[in-house]
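User: quick one - fold this with zinc ion bound?
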Amino acid sequence: MIEADLILRGARLLTLGPLKDERPRVGVAAGDVGAVNDGFVAARDGMIVATGHGRTHERFTRVEGALDKDVGGRVVMPGFVDPHTHLCYAGERWEEFATRRSGADYLAVLAAGGGIHATVRATREASDDQVLALLRRRIGDAAELGTTTIEVKSGYGLEPEEELRQLRLLARAKAEAPIDIAVTYLAAHALPAPFTDDRKRFIREATKALERVVDEKLAEAVDAFVEKGVFDIEDVRPLFNAAKKAGLAVTMHADQLNDVGASAFAARIGARSADHVAHASADGIRALARAQIPAVLLPGSAFFVGYAPPEARRFITARVPVALASDHNPGTSPLEGMPTAIALGVTLCGLTPHEAIVAATINAAHALGRGGRIGALLHGRRADIVVLDTDDERELAYRMGAPLVAEVYAAGRRVA
Ligand SMILES: [Zn+2]
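Assistant: Sure. C-alpha cells for the protein plus zinc ion:
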C-alpha cells in the first residue's frame, strides 16, 4: 500500500521521464517533457512515491496531516535546477552596468581594475553576517522563483584564503537553506594583484587550498575561468588534475568570449559540465557530444552585456546535452530565477520552449552530477516540485516575467 503525505492531482504533469537510463537528454528526447494530462504526483517523507494519471491515487493511504490537492489542470513539474551562479558577493555594480555596452569591454574593464575587482573589494569589506544575509536573501529569491537546487560558486575572494572564507560562509548558508545548494570552489576566476607576475605560483596556491576544501568538505566541484588573457588551459591543468585526484568534480567557464579550445579540454578531462561555450569550435562541440558532457548555456550574460549569445541549435543538432542556468552575478548577469533563463534560452539562444524546460530541469541536474536524484518527477526522486499558474508550460518562455510560479515544494515541503 502506498502511503503519501503530499498528493498533487488533476495536473498537467511534466514528468521529464521516464528514460531507460540516467543519461542527459539529447536528440528527440531533448524536447520531450514527458507530459501526462490528468496526472498526479505523490510523495512521502520528501521523496516521490508515485506518479500517474486518472484516479489510481484514490487507493493510496493519506497519512495524518497529508496535503491532498486538486490543482485544477495547472502544470506540475520538477523544481528548477540552476547549475551555475555566483551568489556569494557583496556590492552592486550600477556604474559599470550603466556605462558598459559590449562584450569586448568586459576584458578592458577587468584590465583597468574594475569589473570583478570591484566586487572582490566589496565582498572582502563586508562582514560574515552581511555576506550570509545576502546569500540567504538570494537563495530565498531563487526558491520563490521555483529553483529547488542551485549551484553557488565562490570566486570573489580570488586569493585562496579569501576563497576559503567564502566557501565556509556558503557551507553555513547551505546548512540552513530551504533548497539544496551545490557548492563550487571557483579557484581561478581572475589573477589577484599579489600574483600579477607569477600565475604559476597563484595556481600552486589555489591547488594547495584544495586540501582544506576536501578536509572541510567545502565544495563538490572546482571551476576556473578559461579565457584569453585570464587563464589558459596549461595554467589550469594542474589545478583540475589535483581536483579530480581529490575526488572533486571539475567544471569550467569555457570559450565564453573567445574560442580557446576549452570545450574540447573539458571533454578530455571528463568535466562535469562546460559552461558558457558561446564561442566553442565545431571540434569542441563534437568532443562534448562524444563525451556527453552537458553544455550549460548562460543567455543572461549575453543579454546584459550585449555579446553574441550561444547558438543552441549548434549543440542540439550535434547531440550535446544542453542545460540552462541563470549565471546570477553582479557584473554580467544580475538575472533572477530560471523562468527568465528559460525565456532567454528560447528567444536568444534558439531552444524550443520544451527544450528549454528540459535544459532547466533534468539536463541541469546532470550538469550538477545529480541526474539520478532530481530533475524529474519519478518514483524514488526527491520531491522537488513546482506548480505553475497556467495549463501550458510554454508560457514560461512566452510570457517573460509573468508570475507563473505558484507553489514550490523542496523535498516535499512547501517553501514558496
Ligand atoms: Zn559564471
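One thing worth noting: The pocket of zinc ion is lined by residues 84, 86, 253, 327, 329 (CB under 6 Å).
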